[in-house]
Amino acid sequence: MTDNEPGDLIDPSEVSSPRSWRRAFADLAAGWRQRPLWGYLGWQDIKQRYRRSVLGPLWISISMGVIALGLGILYSALFEIPIATFLPHVAVGLLIWNFVSGCIIEGSEVFISNEGLIKFLPAPLSLHIYRLVWRQTLFFLHNLVVWLVLMIIFPHPLGFSSLLAIPAFALLAINGAWVAILAGILATRFRDIPPIIASVTQLVFYLTPIVWSVDILRDNEAARERASLVEFNPVFHFVEIVRQPLLGQEIVGRYWLVTGVITIVGWTAALVCLRNYRSRVAYWV
Questions:
Q1: Which domain holds residue 178?
Q2: How many separate domains does the chain show?
Q3: Measured CA distances, 111 to 122, 266, 273, 279 (Å)
Q4: What are the pLDDT digits (tens) for 46-105?
Q5: Which segments in the chain show pLDDT lower than 50?
Q6: Residue 153, phi then psi, degrees to nearest 5
Q7: Which of 118, 136, 239, 250 has the fewest CB atoms below 10 angstroms from its CB?
Q8: How many CB atoms lie under 10 A from the CB of residue 241?
Q9: Of 267, 192, 203, 268, whose CA–CA distance to 235 is shortest?
Q10: Statement: the pTM of the whole predicted model exceeds 0.90
Q11: How far from 1 is each of 71, 96, 113, 279, CA to CA, in Å?
């Protein structure tokens, strides 16, 4: 296998194994340097999706707001929780979940859907990862309008701790990148992976306190012992580090510690996968 592989920006005059840490990190660095390109492509993805629409990208916020309103009203009645408390909980949970699920599901097809670019455009693989995460970030920022409206209608005690939502989301985006790398490479090699990931992601949605609350389990004597099982759901910790500051709730340091450990372990696995198989993606797609 030669050095000038498709999708490789390394100087072909350099003689080194295609399975090297240097090449893996060089791919990430080269992709990051092309911020103007993937930034433009990510924005164009959204514009293309809503082309010839009167409201355009505003439909992103409208659709999420309608879903949050419907689920918030329904489950607040079922769980007998004041809607002023429960509706923001559901809306912010959906806001975060849409980003998480987008990185997971679209990440599993990120290289497959960019087959033409990978085969014929000499660009780093990480460019497609950055483009995906940037697109999901734009969706997230659009949906923040729903959170802002709810904070006006149902005021929460927001303070300086609410600024923690910024590093919390940054940590979420960093994890979205390694998830997309890992899922994308595996799904490119094994085409049964995307539907499996989609099914598992749907299951995780119901196991994560998005449209329900952990306090509901703790207040239920029959289910109180199961409340601790939620801690084994990694998505739960990422949802909480963003949701707590956005709703002015008490910040739990344990959630930050868990997400930090997951970030280190996840990126280690993604880098190993990128090191060993990045040169083969162009032939698998």
A1: 20-32+55-282
A2: 1
A3: 14, 19, 14, 13
A4: 877 777 665 666 777 778 888 888 888 888 888 888 888 889 999 999 999 999 999 999
A5: 1-7, 9-15
A6: -75, -45
A7: 250
A8: 25
A9: 203
A10: no
A11: 54, 42, 25, 9
